[in-house]
Design goal:
Layout: H1 13-42, E1 45-47, H2 48-55, H3 59-67, E2 74-76, E3 79-83, H4 84-93
Length: 95
């Protein structure tokens, strides 16, 4: 833990409270950064080939899942993409 010792014998309650709150703010900020980073990784768009590698399935199976609405897809121009978060959600939910 990278914190400095606080000397309490010359500090007033406001200084102590301020020191504690600064430490708590840093910890909360670190947690939010980690959470946001993991969310951004899951919102990544995958190409068909990347999705095939992730799911270890055939192109025909992936196409059928897309056609039947099992796995949502997104089109940008003439390319098809899949959201990593949608894939993980579908793997967990499995309905």
């Amino acid at each position: 833990m990278d914190s400095k010792p606080t000397i309490f014998y010359q500090a007033n309650p406001e200084d102590i409270t301020s020191t504690i709150l600064i430490g708590v703010d840093k910890k909360i900020e670190d947690c939010f950064k980690k959470f946001k980073q993991s969310q951004e990784e899951n919102e990544q768009l995958l190409t068909v080939e990347e999705t095939l590698n992730l799911l270890k399935c055939s192109k025909q199976a992936l196409w059928n899942w897309r056609k039947n609405g099992i796995l949502p897809s997104y089109r940008l121009g003439n390319r098809v993409y899949y959201k990593k978060s949608d894939i993980f959600a579908k793997l967990v939910k499995q309905d």
